[in-house]
Amino acid sequence: MSDYLVKELMVPLSEYATVLEGSTLFDAVLALEKAQEEFDHTKYKHRGVLILNKNKRVIGKLGQLDVLRALEPKNEDSGKIKELSQFGFSHNFVHKIRKQRRLKAAPLKDLCSKASKLKVEDFMQAPSEGEFIEEEASLEMAVMQLVMGRHISLLVTRNTDIIGILRMTDVFAAVFHTMKECEN
């Protein structure tokens, strides 16, 4: 596997979906759609958006699951329902309560309308220490970081600058290609 370097597998920042801090979730969804349309269709589509500060430095990632979380109705009952499992109530019981609450909530169109106006920084995930990898790192190092940190992507750095993103799908494709070569 050591024939591959991170910089050969990463998606450069210029080709990835990005929005500025302060953008809405709707802006992020539009940026993701645009990046997917422009990206090489022989590769896997993007599944997230990088959030940039005013200096164009990455401060977070917004994934598809983060956008879906924004649709969940927020009120004081949310925290109380989450606490039920701490008091010995079963997962099924808590799930049924959440389901009943969801059925009483606003329709999806209303939830989407409200969520589209929310700010990306309220739902983005700030990168953790283990989510960075140097562009000159080997594929083995990338596999180890993805597995140990349970990440779906890593931010690729050159010195202290983030220059791209290494997605698990691209790492898997390289591993799969290497496996096929070994078998032939």
Count all strands and give the number: 7
Helix and strand composition category: alpha/beta
The rough form would be described as globular
- Report on the biggest sheet: 4 strands, mixed
Q: Largest sheet, order of strands side by side?
A: 1-7-6-5
Tell me what the CATH architecture is.
Answer: Roll
Instruction: Determine the CATH topology.
Output: CBS-domain
CATH superfamily: CBS-domain
Helix content: 40-55%
- Rg, Cα atoms, Å: 19 Å
How far do the termini sit from each other?
Answer: 15 Å
**Mean pLDDT, rounded to whole units?**
86
Q: In what range is the share of β-strand residues?
A: 15-25%
CATH class: Alpha Beta
Number of helices: 8
Give the low-confidence spans: none
Order of helices and strands: HEEHEEHHHHEHEEH
When the domains are counted, the total is 1
